[in-house]
């Protein structure tokens, strides 16, 4: 995953779309994957309370964008 827009980043973004944090895990960013997964699934778990799922959705979109725009050093 050498550069932004590479095939690896596209695959990571698609993986993050279906399973939150999986794209970051594919890229080797374990801490980011764990944080995204916890925040998103906690937000989705409290779907009855209105605000947490909205926050979960926003963070999920951020997760996908983060996986797509990742640039390795």
From TrEMBL:
Which key words tag this protein in UniProt?
Membrane, Transmembrane, Transmembrane helix
Q: Which residues cross the membrane?
A: 7-26, 32-65
What is the name attached to this protein's record?
Uncharacterized protein
Species annotation: Shewanella violacea (strain JCM 10179 / CIP 106290 / LMG 19151 / DSS12)
Organism ancestry? Bacteria, Pseudomonadati, Pseudomonadota, Gammaproteobacteria, Alteromonadales
